UniProtKB/TrEMBL annotation:
One function term, GO molecular function aspect: metal ion binding
Cofactor(s) named in the record: Zn(2+)
Location of region: Disordered: 190-211
Keyword Nucleus: no
Keyword annotations from UniProtKB, A to Z: Hydrolase, Metal-binding, Zinc
PANTHER family from the UniProt entry: HYDROXYACYLGLUTATHIONE HYDROLASE GLOC
Domain Metallo-beta-lactamase: 13-193
CDD domains: metallo-hydrolase-like_MBL-fold
Pfam families linked to this entry: Lactamase_B
Name recorded for this polypeptide: Glyoxylase-like metal-dependent hydrolase (Beta-lactamase superfamily II)
Length: 211
């Protein structure tokens, strides 16, 4: 049985998720900022991180990546379509906002390519390419555990913005309909911001998905 802990980090309260197993190993999803806060939590819970997984490379999801991977000597995963984004403020968006520094991070250690199964130290998940919010957005589904990490693709009652670099509302809606709403109706979807939801709830009440 996996445990999932949520932390709200940085100026726009991005959800960082820490998923741990019985062996006290963990995966870190979207460490947006406040590396010291994440490290303090890991130490308190006596967790050993084995990888960082990014749903996409916008600034509010990547700020603590370099600090964490250098401290713990772990790889960072990112879709290949955003290979250059970590090091370029004009792509990751940090150059657009004065509330954060210009992020020029090291390249991702492992690039994801398309939809496939991924296993890291016994953590098994399906990776879905869900572009639209950004070209390399991905969602990570832990089917046996009944939850998925969906980044900024879908929110409770809303959808991701598409006015940033290479965003596309058409692709976003297709990603949601083809990859997320086809998941089991009561699967818990953990978004990049705000509270969790389910496919059933969004089919029923999300105004952006009607018609």
């Amino acid at each position: 049985m996996l445990k999932i802990n949520q932390m709200e980090l940085g100026p726009v309260q991005t959800n960082c998720y820490i998923i741990s197993n019985d062996a006290k190993e963990c995966l870190i999803f979207d460490p947006g900022e406040e590396a010291d806060k994440i490290i303090g939590f890991l130490q308190k819970k006596q967790l050993t991180p084995v990888a960082i997984l990014l749903t996409h490379a916008h600034f509010d999801h990547i700020g603590a990546v370099d600090t964490l991977r250098e401290k713990y000597e772990i790889p960072a995963y990112l879709h290949k379509l955003e290979k250059e984004w970590l090091g370029k403020p004009n792509l990751n968006g940090s150059g657009k906002y004065s509330m954060v520094p210009d992020y020029r991070l090291k390249d991702a250690d492992i690039l994801l390519d398309g939809e496939k199964q991924l296993e890291i130290n016994g953590f098994k998940m399906d990776v879905f390419h869900t572009p639209g919010h950004s070209p390399g957005s991905v969602s990570y589904s832990f089917g046996q555990e009944g939850f998925a990490i969906v980044g900024d693709t879908l929110f409770r009652g809303s959808i991701g913005r598409t006015d940033l670099v290479d965003g596309s509302e058409k692709k976003l809606l297709q990603s949601i309909n083809d990859s997320l709403l086809t998941l089991p109706e009561h699967m818990i979807l953990y978004p990049g911001h705000g509270p969790e939801t389910t496919p059933e709830q969004e089919k029923r009440s999300n105004p952006f998905l009607r018609g």
